[in-house]
């Protein structure tokens, strides 16, 4: 084990560190910490002619708001403690970005790479049926989403299974998020977590006071970034950083790690990996010692975007980044957190930084309940208003815009524009909230504690407003 603490214990430790700075009474703090419902299931599935018993979980951490929400991961590391930890992180994550859901998480203990698409579909559909049987899924009950090892494909199997078991339920589409757009998904969900990571770090880099405190120039341009994990979150975050002028100087994947101080082109690297099955050997890069070595490269921003516990007390001493953006859930052990803090490395916590996925999932759920695409009602209206403005400006100034300028000025919002702007606003407001708590007292040493203070206060207040304690 990479830490003395289990993953759930480390979330509890972070909670306990922040609790004294909140206004919430002890009994309610104990209730917030507890996992309300834990459903462990075992079910048989026939794979390659043989019956396999599959172990799976769904944990609902807090019912202070409904539905509860959280991803489903497919990994051999899935266990009850991990799912409980991830479910509780979801409660705090939703609270920090003002998404009105309680936290939940699910997991199936399988290595998805070892199964055919047909078998994965059978396992996913059977898991959904188990959730339906126990009333652990539904648009007003519990709404899963993708996580490590799952994506839009699995979500579409889930919605289809749910639909067939609950025929005629008008809001059935809202039983899961992260669906393909053709199956009720929202434009912008695929890249949402990576984009949220980018918006969160960009806001910090534009914060001149904080950057001065960390001994860095403000702005993202030219910043050196290292990414671990080129999956949904890591790839998208890397792409947005690169497009904003940052240099990707190191990448770590399952099979090894590589570095190039002059910058690695992420799309070319992805194409290379697809063709060769590995990032190692990509033109212009150096192969590093092993698959964690890139974490120790000198850089401005390190983005662990693969799994938990990848920075522990052994390698924490060797980390040379100035900012660590926790794109994955729980990538730093509690022991490593202490070491990094002492070294003056600023950790931007997972519960804030990777909340882009749940934020856009919330937009998708709202779209499903309203049964209308974002932008459908207002696009033409905005365009006609914008046309009138443009015509007035031309008349007043006597200058004519080019056709290209005109079409840019007039264009009304598409669904993706609205989703991106809602996400950016969310990440900026949450950053400001965390920052103001962090800067308020010297005793609140780090951003993680500040984020927990903000979340615990919100969840606690919700419980107090419920007011029913039998
Ligand atoms: P994913 O399965 O798409 O990608 C994970 C990537 O990490 C893969 O490319 C995999 O090969 C790589 N990887 C695995 N082990 C590795 C190792 N030892 N070293 C380097 N790379 C390794 O998963 P994802 O959805 O991108 O999730 C990544 C992390 O982000 C997880 O911790 C997840 O809980 C968290 N997260 C995901 C979302 C989301 O919307 N997908 C939202 C919030 C948080």
Features:
single chain; 470 residues; alpha/beta; 3 domains; 7-stranded mixed sheet; 15% strand; binds nicotinamide-adenine-dinucleotide
Brief overview:
The chain is an alpha/beta fold. Helix content is 45%, strand content 15%.
Structure in words:
With 470 residues, the chain is α/β, with parallel strands linked by helices. The protein folds into 3 domains: 37-185, Leucine Dehydrogenase, chain A, domain 1 (Rossmann fold, 3-Layer(aba) Sandwich), CATH 3.40.50; 192-353, NAD(P)-binding Rossmann-like Domain (Rossmann fold); 380-412, no CATH class. The chain has 16 helices and 12 strands. It has helices spanning 7-18, 26-33, 80-96, 117-133, 152-165, 192-205, 208-213, 232-243, 266-276, 334-342, 350-353, 356-370, 379-397, 403-410, 415-440, 447-466, and strands spanning 37-47, 50-60, 68-74, 102-108, 142-146, 224-228, 247-253, 256-259, 286-287, 301-304, 323-325, 346-348. Helix 3 (80-96) links the parallel strand 3 and strand 4 (102-108). Helix 1 (7-18) crosses helix 16, helix 6 crosses helix 8 and helix 15 packs across helix 16. The chain starts with 6 loop residues before the first helix and ends with a helix. The relative contact order is 0.13. The mean pLDDT is 95.
